[in-house]
Amino acid sequence: MRRFSAFNVVSLTLGFAFLYLPMIILVIYSFNASKLVTVWAGFSTKWYGELMRNEAFLDAALVTLKVAVMTSTLATVLGTCAAYVLVRIHRFPGRTLFSGMIYAPLVMPDVILGLSLLLLFIGVNIDRGILTIVLAHTTFAMCYVSVVVSSRLVAFDQSLEEAALDLGATPFQTFRLVTLPIIAPAVISGWLLAFTLSLDDLVIASFTAGPSSTTLPMKIFSAVRLGVSPEINALSTIMIGIVTVGVITASLMSKRAAVQRLKEEQTAERS
Amino acid sequence: MPQKVFAPWDDPAEKPLIQFRNVTKRFGDFTAIDNINLDIYTREFFALLGPSGCGKTTLMRMLAGFETPTEGTILLSGQDIGPVPPNQRAVNMMFQSYALFPHLSVWENIAFGLKREGKDKATIETRVHEMLKLTRLEKFARRKPHQISGGQRQRVALARSLAKAPKLLLLDEPLGALDKKLREETQFELMDIQEKTGTTFVIVTHDQEEAMTVASRVAVMDEGELMQVATPDRIYEAPNSVYVADFIGDVNIIEGRAHQAGDKLQIDWAEGQPALFAQTDKNFDMGQTCYIAIRPEKVAISAERPQGANVLQGKVLDIAYLGNLSTYHVQLPTGHVVKAQQANTRRISRREFTWEDDVWVSWSETAGVVLDK
After folding, report:
1. What is the 3-state secondary structure (H, E, C) of chain A?
2. Which listed site, A243, B32, B211, B258, has its alpha carbon 20 to 30 Å from A8?
């Protein structure tokens, strides 16, 4: 292994400072006793208490959570279906067009996507609320799911599906009993990706939300326009905490599973 | 009582299990299978042999139902199986990659097909146990595929494909992933299992030794066509073309012009060299191009000029020492190289010939096969 030179240390420090300094400052100020965001007046957890009593924030959090769960579930189902067809069926008219079009929303500016959805909802006369946000979020989240799932399907040994058919399974049984269990990790990461995308979307939600369906990012954004309050710092810290715990647990679990598997494979070959 | 030789293909009363009738398969402009007619009989161990891309895998996949013929019909027990989807055919396949379901245990892998048939629990239990016993896998029933070795995985794949007691079992390069020693053991195990279960096996392989060892009959394929279908000894001893002779084993091929000389054929093959003689049932026109194919083990090598029909002089160019055998590459004055093989019955230090020695190679009139293509 190469030693750390002074240059490497500086690069590392600069890079990570750039990434994490803003968040560290935010976390520190969430424990500030003062109401003024920029002045430090000693350690306190009172803003966390305040937050818990703030009904508007809690309502918004609940709306966000509902939207995220519904979005990620719907997006996972649709995205997996799309990925399955695009990867498995090699020749059908317009396949290239379809596979290109499924990725278009990934590069489409949020503003345009939000505006077009708003026009659509007005056009077909749906009352704007949680449902419209879910529909809007699903449109772009399912592309991400489809990307994640299709990369797994491409690497998938197709003879497994043929073997299932050969042993008498119907095409649907083959999907349910063989394909789905094997691509499950990709489907789960697709779900989580859709969940986080929906959780932090501000632009599209702003276009498609109704008066009674303010999501947390919308709430925070409007609150910040009136001035940053330590309450928001506290809320953000909680969110950072949840994400950190989730990511660390997931990576530890997958690492342990990989190590376990390698050990078992080695014992099997030796026996 | 004399033991009856297993040769249903010679019995006109025998009904074939599988019949390919004028089967052609095209992928776009590419013809993978070109108008094939082939009968395979019950209890046969039939090998499809050929280089990669010769169409052998396509032929097998049509039997499994993963490909449909572009033209022609395939009959299984007299029934056209063209419109039958793979999950409704009494045919099972063992995949080259084994295709074991990674999320299921060995037991569940073997039970997969039985469960799809809707068999009751006790029947499944008994059958899976039978299969585990047949393939000596009882100890590994609860393991997942990644927890067992390559040879064991191969046996799981075999057990799984046999569990439903198919009429026909297809094996796609079943031993390709095993090392040489294990492969040889497994070949005999396969033959043993085939005999015990009485299932008809069709095996696809590019390994000619494997085909010769396991098969009752071998079909040699090239570019979507059947070159020859015959028993292993016929394929080896009486190939019908230079292609088959060259594909199976080692062979010397000498091209020449045919002259009928009484009951045998005289072959003029080079200026200033004595003509070669061979016996053949085939008729050749005067001056027709023909090829004589002689296996190296049927060519004798000696220091003194021997008596015999075909005697040629040359120099030892190369010696391939294989332990039990040595193959001598003898260069003739014409530039042709004739391979002669000898069993090493004496220690290597007492070898009679060495490089650059002048030697005589010879073979009898019946040793070679005369071919017209």
Report:
1. CCCCCHHHHHHHHHHHHHHHHHHHHHHHHHCECCCCCCCCCCECCHHHHHHHHCHHHHHHHHHHHHHHHHHHHHHHHHHHHHHHHHHHCCCCCCHHHHHHHCCHHHHCCHHHHHHHHHHHHHHHCCCCCHHHHHHHHHHHHHHHHHHHHHHHHHCCCCHHHHHHHHCCCCHHHHHHHHHHHHHHHHHHHHHHHHHHHHHHCCHHHHHHCCCCCCCHHHHHHHHHHCCCCHHHHHHHHHHHHHHHHHHHHHHHHHHHHHHHHHHHHHHHHHC
2. A243
Mean pLDDT of A156-177: 93
pTM attached to this predicted model: 0.80
Q: Chain A, 155-194: which have a CB under 8 Å from a chain B CB?
A: 157, 159-160, 162-171, 173, 177-178, 181-182
* Most B CBs within 10 Å, among A88, A158, A161, A166, to test the B interface: A166
Domains of chain B: 8-243 (3.40.50.300), 251-371 (2.40.50.140)
Is residue B194 over pLDDT 70?
yes
Q: How far is A86 from chain B (nearest CA, A)?
A: 19
* Residues B241-294: tens digit of each pLDDT: 999 999 888 899 999 898 887 778 888 888 888 888 888 888 888 888 999 999
